[in-house]
Amino acid sequence: MTSAANYRMPAEWAPHAATWIAWPHNSDDWPGKFQPIPWVYAEIVRHLSRVEDVHILVNNEAAEHRATTMLRRGGANLARLHFHQWPTDRVWLRDSGPIFVKNPQGELALTNWKFNAWAKYDNWRRDNTIPHQVAQHYDMPELCAQLDLGNGQPPHRLVLEGGSIDTNGSGILLTTEECLLSEVQQRNPGLGDQEQTRQRLEQAFQQFLGIEQTLWLHRGCAGDDTHGHVDDITRFVAENTILTAVEPNIHDENHLPLAENLDRLRTARNLEGKPFEIVPLPMPNPVTFEGQRLPASYANFYIANDLVLVPTFNDPHDRHALNIIANCFPTREVIGIHAVDLVWGLGTLHCMTQQEPA
Predict the structure, then answer these.
(1) pLDDT tens for residues 258-276?
(2) Is the pLDDT of residue 34 over 50?
(3) Residue 119 three-state SS
(4) Can you list the positions of beta strands (E) in 72-212?
């Protein structure tokens, strides 16, 4: 194991060597609607493979063959695709995959946090092995995220999902209290009361991700089964610019939580004591399927080399959201990806991808 000294998590817009994804296979994640999902993935990979390599986890040789056939038909650049036959439980690599960090010399390491399926599902043991497999694949330093709690206790292995954090690459991190401090779907019982947990997590962010300041928002969006992931509501788009979802309709359950988050962001200050530039982003109209509210949000976009992929929902707000995001990334192509079927799996583009810095 490597010491975490001097490593820092880069911003998502920093140059990538590759994107990591896992090919969809668990039909239980899209009950009754699985059939179109691999084609949505093929379209996403088509775009990504124009600008960077894509590492794709598949369960076995047959799955690799099926995926390759679909990707060829879908027009992906096969020369940039790298398959790994590492079985997974689910495909949400933002949460189960490695979080890469980089030191001032430009050397990469990866942080290995425990994954326990959002403290909600029983099948996570395959997914929990992914960071270690990536470290072995690259022979890359692996930082095991754990805290020494003292009092003769064994080190506490920390649970963290990539979707619960977002960073500006310069030492500031966004997260929510709902996800990391609540007793509902509690990630890290045993770290103490809420205030002790907050302090210990901030210590871990500093130790393993190079974070100097953590901005705590209150709650995530309606329909989010992760219980408050920040990547559905609020994202850094530049070192001092934060895009945050808002819902003007006072009758919508997202209105109050998102308004409170906006208030917190407006009073927040950066490391120089200056305010952030805050850019409001609309929410789509509620997306429901079989009576269930889904976590549809434009904030779940993914920033790749030269492009940004944004989930869209056949909604009049789609165009407005794409324009706002395009204004934040003037040098990148901004592409809408139809995500009405995808979001039935309770995640979209950011949830399924994990960037590997260059």
Answers:
(1) 999 999 999 999 999 999 9
(2) yes
(3) helix
(4) 81-85, 99-102, 108-112, 142-144, 146-147, 156-157, 166-167, 172-176
* Interatomic CA distance for residues 198 and 309, integer angstroms: 32
Domains in the chain: ranges and CATH:
16-357 (3.75.10.10)
**Residues 144, 179, 328, 351: which is the catalytic one?**
351
Sequence-distant (6+) residues with CB within 8 A of 133 are 84, 86
Cα distances from 116 to residues 90, 307, 340, in angstroms, run 12, 31, 27
For residue 164, what are the contacts with CB-CB under 8 A and spacing of at least 6?
95, 175, 176, 179, 180, 226, 228, 229, 230, 231
Which pLDDT band, with edges at 50, 70 and 90, does 2 fall under? low
Could you tell me the two tokens for 10? 């880069």
Q: Which tokens belong to 201?
A: 């997590």
Residues in the chain: 358
CB atoms within 10 A of CB 137: 12
129-185 residue pLDDT tens: 999 999 999 999 999 999 998 888 889 999 999 999 999 999 999 999 999 999 999
Name the residue among 351, 57, 81 with its Cα closest to residue 221. Answer: 351
Token pair 């979707």 in the structure block, residue? 163
Reported confidence tier of residue 1, pLDDT bands at 50, 70, 90: very low
Q: Whole-model pTM?
A: 0.97
Closest by Cα among 298, 312, 309, 300 to 333: 309
Per-residue confidence (pLDDT) for residue 3, from 0 to 100: 56
Q: How far, in Å, CA of 195 to CA of 83, rounded?
A: 43
328 is catalytic: no
Tokens at 176, concatenated: 């929510």
Question: Could you give the CA distance from residue 166 to residue 84 in angstroms, rounded to a whole number?
Answer: 27
